Amino acid sequence: MSTPSQTVGPFLSIGLPWEDGPEVVPAGTPGAVWIRGTVSDGAGQPVPDALVETWQADADGRFDHPDDPRGAAGNGFRGFGRCPTDSGGQYQIRTVVPGAVPGAGGLPQAPHIDVSVLARGLLHRVVTRIYFEDKDNSADQVLALVPEDRRHTLIATKTEDGYRFDVRLQGEGETVFFDV
Amino acid sequence: MGDLRLPRYARDPDGTHPPLDYAGYGSTKLRHPKQPLVLLPQQLTEVTGPLLGPGRLGELDNDLTRQHAGEPQGQRIIVTGRLLDGDARPVRNSLVEIWQANAGGRYKHTGDRWPSPLDPNFDGVGRTLTDDDGRYTFTTIKPGAYPWKNHDNAWRPAHIHFSVFGTAFTQRLVTQMYFPDDPLFGQDPIFNSIPDEKARQRMISRFDLDRTEANWALAYQFDIVLRGRDASVFEDEEEEDE
Ligand SMILES: [Fe+3]
Questions:
Q1: Which CDD domains does the entry mention (chain A) (predicted)?
Q2: Which residues numbered 19-78 in B keep a CB inside 8 Å of some CB on A?
Q3: Ranges of each domain in chain A
């Protein structure tokens, strides 16, 4: 019987941020990009007390994890990013764009990053996925489950040094959140 | 490429977790999604997850009473328990993070301004790894209750915030540990946001006389249970012997 979820509350920033949390890959890693964005609420106001966490495969689409049926990648790829939002609701993660990961029926999924957002006012984390506008997302089976007119909320747009991915918790342009 | 054999993580029964929209907790009002969640069939990204180990820890991270030159004020306590999956298997070598208010109910956070003193000897932040039995142990002080602005004369029951990962993205959990018989439970919307009464009780630690240390510290036991997995074929069964 699972333990229930509770909100992180307003003071998560004393306990959860790590100095290297936003650095999924070290500086200078070939192909490294910054994914940046703003978390905002139903009034369009930035959320300054949220935590954004990311989980992803490496550039070859592998996980360094024993439950990857192809075998753990064994390369020490952390795959995990964590960044609290600042006073303007902004977060940033330095990472590499993941490779395609096999999905149902052995068909490849489009490159994606799983995201948890935790905040005061969220009694349970919300989960979303980042896709990339310059990748082929047309055959992705998860995106296909999302109403077409909302898919754009999951697609990060190109910037000078990476991508932009905003999270709108509620209202106009509300981000698609998943039940996992 | 054939089908991937993946573990699958069982969904928790209705009522185990709080709704995102909960009128009693004012901060949910502008922060809960209004569109329905989209059911995501668990795939490889969801059944794997960060495995965060020893590199994350400093030597005194699991003893919040020894992180400064002097000792913090308050009742010294040992908080211990096991991190388990839904099949009662220990989750080993897994990061457990906690944060909490001091004995007077004040957080060491610039946003916490209520008139109760900060304690120069208490940061209220701890980390540890579970052992081979899934057990974690912290030494800390019992946090105080604190007021907040949610409703008239609102007070949070004493609690310690816990963050755990398990081994899969689906198992990520942040919760709060409460203390037995807190008189503030009745008026607290965060505690009461859990619909199922039995699930709510699972957030309350148990006083544990066996683990107290004579002339030193009281002890509380708090097990954390994550979603269980059952090995199953992710997609349609492939033909045998292929
Ligand atoms: Fe708190």
A1: 3_4-PCD_alpha
A2: 19-20, 22, 25, 27-35, 37-52, 56
A3: 12-168
Catalytic residue chosen out of the listed positions B159, B200, B227, B229: B159
Residue B125: partners with Cβ closer than 8 Å, 6 or more residues away: A14, A15, B64, B98, B99
Question: What are the C-alpha distances in Å from B116 to residues A158, B140, B142, B145?
Answer: 47, 19, 15, 11
pTM as predicted? 0.95
The total of other beta-carbon atoms located within 10 Å of residue B186's CB is 9
* Chain centre distance of CA B191: 13
Distant-in-sequence, close-in-space partners of B229: CB < 8 Å, separation ≥ 6? B7, B8, B9, B10, B47, B85, B86, B87, B168
- Beta pairing, strands A113-119 & A32-40: unpaired
Task: Give which of B48, B140, B190, B222 to mutate to test A binding, by max A Cβ within 10 Å.
Answer: B48
Distance B100 CA to ligand 1 centre (A): 6
Which of helix, strand or coil describes residue A25?
coil
Radius of gyration for chain A, computed over Cα atoms and rounded to the nearest angstrom? 16
Q: What is the pLDDT of residues B125-140, one digit of tens each?
A: 999 999 999 999 999 9
- Interface membership of B203 toward A (CB under 8 Å): yes
Phi, psi dihedrals of residue B4, rounded to the nearest 5° = -90, 135
Complex prediction ipTM = 0.97
CATH number of the domain bearing residue B200: 2.60.130.10
B9, B25, B146, B220: the active-site residue: B146
Does the annotation mark B178 as catalytic? no
> What amino acid is encoded at A121 in this protein?
G
Nearest to A14 among B3, B86, B109 (CB): B109
| pLDDT, tens digit (0-9, with 9 covering 90-100), for B174-196 | 999 999 999 999 999 999 999 99
What is residue A46's DSSP assignment? B
Question: CATH second-level architecture of A12-168?
Answer: Sandwich (2.60)
Domain enclosing residue B139, as ranges: 63-225
